[in-house]
Amino acid sequence: MRALFFATLTCVGLAAAALSPALAAPQMMGLVANNSAVPVQCQRGECFAELTAFCLQPLRSSPIRGTVYRLHDNTSLVATATTKDGRIINLDPGQDLQIRAERSHVAVRIGMSAREMFRRGLREVHIKVARNATLVPVAVAGDRTPLQPDEIAATVDRLRPFGGDYVDREQQWMPVARLANRLINALPPGGQVSQQQRQALWTRAIRPDDLAATPPGTGQRLRAIYDDCRGAVRTARRPSLRRCLESRHDSMVGTLNNQYWHAIKFGS
């Protein structure tokens, strides 16, 4: 229990996260693969999709919201765009997309500005993440403890595959978190939706084939979370369905992250 509590403090980064990113580089993160491409949505001049992540380094702080990251390997993410004249083009993840921490270490935003979408004549952008993708915080001026090449290499080569066993490929809650992430991305980034839209969300975002490809019990667990969140919005316990699903998603991923660090600490 003490070790698990330590892992929770480490990954959430309670005290360390209060530090300015200019003082100490935050942790590297694993970017969880998604089974189908996620579309970006636009809000307040930014067009983005929200993707699942988890912390890889226990001795570095969790990122604050807005911390800029880059892919360690640009081939681990595929971004396709549809132009206004109907052409399908591939984007360069390293040059065309921005990656920023959204909610600590469990969710990131990936996309581009609405102005850039307009300038390039893009109507839609879809993002798909491959297995074992790794995010590295972009170095900033004044960093007292920047990530060193050997630290990055060790995290990518050893910690990332180990994290895949405990987080990405976990078979009870990660399949639920993946589908919850799909529900999240099918809702508007901000504000509430009507009761009719909430009722239609499941049919619109979760296909029968999606559930058929998951381990037994995934659909029941996801449906319980979905129905509970709908009830929470209906009784004003939650401000919106998206916020409730984000909270449940973060709890599932955070729990898996803690199990991963518990295993790391004891060499499991």
What this model shows, in words?
Helices cover 42% and strands 22% of the residues. The protein contains 9 helices and 11 strands. The two termini are 16 Å apart. The protein is an alpha+beta fold and 268 residues long.
Total strand segments:
11
Radius of gyration: 18 Å
DSSP helical segment count? 9
- The separation of the N and C termini measures 16 Å
Shape: globular
* Main pleated-sheet profile: 6 strands, antiparallel, barrel
User: Strand order across the biggest sheet?
Assistant: 1-4-9-8-5-11
- The helix content, as a percent range, equals 40-55%
List low-confidence stretches. 1-10, 12-22
Element order: H for helix, E for strand = HEEEEEEEHEEHEEHHHHHH
Q: Mean pLDDT, nearest integer?
A: 90
**Percent of residues in β-strands:** 15-25%
Assign the structural class, choosing from mainly alpha, mainly beta, alpha/beta, alpha+beta, or little secondary structure.
Answer: alpha+beta
Write out key terms for the chains shown.
268 residues, alpha+beta, 6-stranded antiparallel β-barrel, 4-stranded antiparallel β-sheet, globular
Summary?
The chain is of the alpha+beta class and 268 residues long.
Helix and strand topology:
Blueprint: H1 2-12, E1 29-31, E2 38-39, E3 41-43, E4 46-55, E5 68-71, E6 77-83, E7 88-91, H2 93-96, E8 98-103, E9 107-113, H3 114-119, E10 122-129, E11 133-137, H4 149-168, H5 174-185, H6 195-205, H7 208-212, H8 218-234, H9 241-266
Antiparallel strand pairs: 1-4, 1-11, 2-10, 3-4, 4-9, 5-8, 5-11, 6-7, 6-10, 8-9
